[in-house]
């Protein structure tokens, strides 16, 4: 019978006679070494211990039962991820206090020497609250680079925990369900590049005080931090690239001066760009509800130097407005409804022409309108008259790709408008399948039968044949992605009329 792997909590009290980790005698082990061109020489034992330090935590813990050397290495293991999964706990079988005992055993027997990563996930166990202080005092030591602390209750994280050595080394900090009140006395976190706060009791002034001294910060994520009402992202954050803010109850107002920020995700947040930062932006990603409208009506007027723009939307319910604002340098535009998102049936696809009208230098357009269900007015119903914009100038547009192309009248009108005005167009791709995948591989969910998706794909192909193919100039390559032959044979094609 195969012997099961020992659980993590038994490793540190193992009394078995240790074996040599490389399977040879001690005398031979002492003589064995590897020399490198730079002059350094490493024993085979050093190499084995290096391999051991790179192993996943559970594997490293199990291997500590086989060798005294590995046991010493385990007590200095650089990566501790402590949760029910890594400690092999079954929530239906564990006894009260098992979780606390195992974490306490691992942390108290760890030397804290060489610890680089500590992930402590206690969010589902209220019994751990009283032990957090002692555990963190043992584990959070100078040299640590990554700290993730997920608690069950509002633990008050002391600033003293971030001592001089910790402040100089920590690169990633994630806090959940705790209170954190940094002050000027805390000092700078010189190496911190990523900060993530979820359900953390911290004010906007306290957070601004913290990040103003965190000059290496590249990513900032805030979620459900209810005490933040106003936050200013200062211009000293030259390295900040990504900002994600999600407010669940109160709206947050954010002023941004950071000059190199290019990716923003927000929900229930009011964003205001100050000219100092917005004027320098060249690449920008916006991810929110009604992002198409918000970008055109609110943001792009203060970002005149954009070259690449990516818009991701949960849902669009308001048409994109036509405005005089121009983006003279914009070359690459991607507009996408994210998975699970949708356009309102009242949304007019043709209103997206506002972005084309504003971008005379546009070279590449990717439009992803993939949806599980098309509820817009079809080009086959009602009036067959297609709208046009005779003054639209698209002199630089060369490549267009539309994913999830459907028979919605507004989308057909938008496509025809592009074909008539893009004098430099080289290639246009119309993909009638959701998310660009093969129709046999579509992930439709229980409420979206494959037949309904294929029926709309067939209608989209009919719309392309009837309204679009004749508008394609001879110099333009048209690629139509449609249902495969198997789908044609298994389903009757609906009458387009």
If you had to describe this structure to a student in words, what would you say it looks like?
This protein is an alpha/beta fold and 497 residues long. Among the domains are: 77 residues, no CATH class; 216 residues, no CATH class. The chain contains 14 helices and 20 strands. A 15-stranded parallel β-sheet has the order 3-4-5-6-7-8-10-12-14-15-16-17-18-19-20. A hairpin with a 5-residue loop joins strand 1 and strand 2. The chain is elongated, with a radius of gyration of 29 Å. It starts with 25 loop residues before the first helix and ends in a 7-residue tail after the last helix. 34% of the residues are buried.
Helices and strands in order:
Blueprint: H1 26-31, E1 33-35, E2 41-43, H2 44-54, H3 57-63, H4 68-74, E3 79-82, H5 98-109, E4 117-121, H6 132-139, E5 146-157, H7 164-169, E6 172-180, E7 194-201, H8 204-212, E8 219-223, E9 230-233, E10 242-246, E11 252-256, E12 263-267, E13 269-273, H9 275-278, E14 283-288, H10 291-299, E15 308-316, E16 332-343, H11 353-357, E17 364-368, E18 399-403, H12 409-421, E19 427-431, H13 450-468, E20 477-481, H14 485-490
Parallel strand pairs: 3-4, 4-5, 5-6, 6-7, 7-8, 8-10, 9-11, 10-12, 11-13, 12-14, 14-15, 15-16, 16-17, 17-18, 18-19, 19-20
Antiparallel strand pairs: 1-2
Helix pairs in contact: 2-4, 12-13
Quick synopsis:
25% of the residues lie in helices and 24% in strands. The chain has 14 helices and 20 strands.
Strand order of the largest sheet: 3-4-5-6-7-8-10-12-14-15-16-17-18-19-20
Alpha plus pi helix count: 14
Q: Mean of the pLDDT scores?
A: 80
N-to-C terminal Cα separation, in Å? 69 Å
């Amino acid at each position: 019978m195969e012997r099961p792997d020992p659980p993590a909590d038994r490793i540190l009290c193992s009394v078995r006679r240790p074996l040599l980790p490389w399977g040879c005698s001690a005398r031979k082990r002492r003589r064995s070494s590897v020399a490198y061109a730079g002059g350094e020489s490493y024993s085979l034992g050093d190499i084995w211990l290096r391999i051991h330090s790179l192993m996943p935590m559970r594997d490293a813990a199990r291997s500590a039962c086989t060798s005294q050397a590995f046991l010493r290495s385990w007590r200095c293991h650089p990566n501790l991820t402590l949760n029910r999964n890594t400690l092999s706990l079954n929530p239906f079988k564990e006894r009260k206090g098992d979780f606390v005992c195992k974490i306490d055993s691992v942390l108290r027997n760890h030397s804290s020497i060489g610890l680089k990563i500590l992930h402590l996930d206690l969010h589902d166990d209220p019994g751990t609250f009283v032990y957090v202080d002692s555990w963190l005092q043992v584990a959070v030591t100078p040299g640590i680079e990554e700290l993730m602390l997920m608690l069950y209750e509002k633990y008050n994280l002391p600033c003293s925990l971030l001592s001089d050595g910790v402040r100089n080394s920590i690169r990633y900090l994630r806090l959940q369900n705790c209170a954190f009140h940094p002050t000027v006395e805390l000092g700078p976190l010189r190496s911190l590049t990523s900060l993530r706060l979820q359900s953390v009791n911290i004010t906007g002034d306290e957070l601004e005080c913290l990040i103003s001294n965190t000059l290496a910060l590249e990513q900032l994520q805030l979620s459900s931090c209810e005490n933040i009402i106003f936050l200013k992202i200062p211009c000293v954050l030259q390295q900040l690239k990504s900002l994600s803010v999600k407010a669940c109850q109160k709206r947050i107002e954010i002023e941004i001066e950071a000059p190199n920020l290019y990716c923003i995700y927000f929900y229930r947040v009011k964003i205001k760009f100050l000219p100092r930062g917005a004027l320098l932006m060249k690449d920008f990603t916006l991810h929110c509800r009604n992002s198409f409208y918000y970008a055109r009506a609110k943001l792009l007027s203060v970002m005149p130097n954009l070259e690449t723009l990516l818009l991701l939307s949960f849902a669009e319910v308001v048409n994109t407005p036509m405005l005089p604002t121009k983006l003279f340098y914009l070359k690459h535009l991607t507009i996408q409804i994210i998975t699970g998102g949708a356009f309102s049936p009242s949304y007019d696809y043709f209103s997206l022409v506002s972005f084309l009208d504003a971008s005379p230098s546009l070279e590449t357009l990717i439009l992803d309108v993939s949806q599980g269900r098309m509820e817009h007015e079809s080009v086959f119903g009602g009036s067959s008259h297609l709208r046009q914009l005779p003054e639209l100038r698209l002199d630089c547009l060369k490549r267009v790709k539309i994913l999830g192309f459907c028979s919605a009248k507004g989308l057909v009108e938008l496509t025809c408008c592009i074909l008539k005005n893009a004098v430099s167009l080289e290639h246009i791709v119309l993909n009638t399948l959701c998310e660009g995948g093969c129709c046999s591989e579509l992930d439709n969910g229980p409420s979206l039968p494959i037949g309904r998706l294929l029926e709309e794909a067939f209608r989209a192909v009919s719309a392309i044949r009837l309204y679009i193919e004749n508008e394609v100039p001879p110099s333009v390559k048209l690629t139509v992605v449609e249902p495969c032959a198997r789908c044609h044979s298994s389903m009757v094609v609906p009458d387009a009329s």
